Sequence to fold (380 residues):
Amino acid sequence: MGTAGGERLRRWRMVLGGGDADGTGGVLGGRDAAMDGALAALYGGGGDGKGQGERSAGLGGSAPKVARWLGDIRTYFPTPVVQVMQRDAIDRLGLSTLLLEPEMLEAVEPDVHLVGTLLSLNKAMPETTRETARAVVRKVVEQLEKRLAARTRATLTGALDRSARINRPRHRDIDWDRTIRANLKNYLPEYRTVVPERLVGHGRAAQSVKKEVVLCIDQSGSMAASVVYASVFGAVLASMRSIATRLVVFDTAVVDLTDQLDDPVDVLFGTQLGGGTDINRALAYCQSKITRPADTVVVLISDLYEGGIREEMLKRVAAMKAAGVEFVALLALSDEGAPAYDREHAAALAALGAPAFACTPDLFPEVMAAALEKRPLPVP
Fold:
């Protein structure tokens, strides 16, 4: 068989997992056998690493065996694949409790989903593991801040500048699009031009504009990744002088973590993933903290499965919007794709002029910029 055919057979053998039923008759050796053994331990392929015999093997509950397996997959697979395999191991084989051991945490590849798992185990975590867990969480948080912070600050600073519209702007601060639209009635056909009787421009946010942002985050178990991203964004927003940021997390109780915003790791360990959901109570708290409605943006991050009083929740949203608050409803703030959510509640919010949609971390700065400028949100 030619080289191309042999490579194709090898790939099929890796996919099918060996044994009499795979139909390839292929036998792996060396690095391929080691990779196959790592896959078999998780997904049930030939566990002897030689690609033959009955499907067997697994990681069981042995911490040393799991630690060796974690080292193997980091050797043989790229980081994104390692993260997926770790997530599958936790979900399929019930290895969450092993993450309470410091040696195990040191062997894993940190990512957002691992942080979510650690936060769900927070209350059960022994002191010997807590510092290691904080180090893992901090590594992920620093990676996210590096990826998201600069673009978020730049996008929102521009939005704040544009939102501070003035009628006697300097030339460099003229908003030509708004100026032309404001003066269309002064169009002179013979000269084919618009006479700008009124100039529209923007000032400088640091000097003339201050907005208030309230992040209201559902900390039920299904929202783990959203909690992680929202905490990072909360810290970034809090670092901007022209934005007063409040961060509130809730399940059936409401906790204000605003005083911890300078360190998103403290925010994350202040959450308690799991439990019920009372959106109405959370919005009632947020509503009580609004002092300048016309300059406030409330961002509700929730799958909208409400355990509280639905009618009251909707009345609060309507009241905030009527007072001038910009209300944003995000079903998820993550890269995980379309989330499960309460469609009836989402439709009710949309009827109030607050469309609910899932948002990726990369889109979030644009969503916030639109909300600060009071223009239509960039709904995907």
DSSP finds 15 helices and ten strands in the chain. The longest strand covers residues 211-218. Residues 45-57 have pLDDT under 50 and may be disordered.
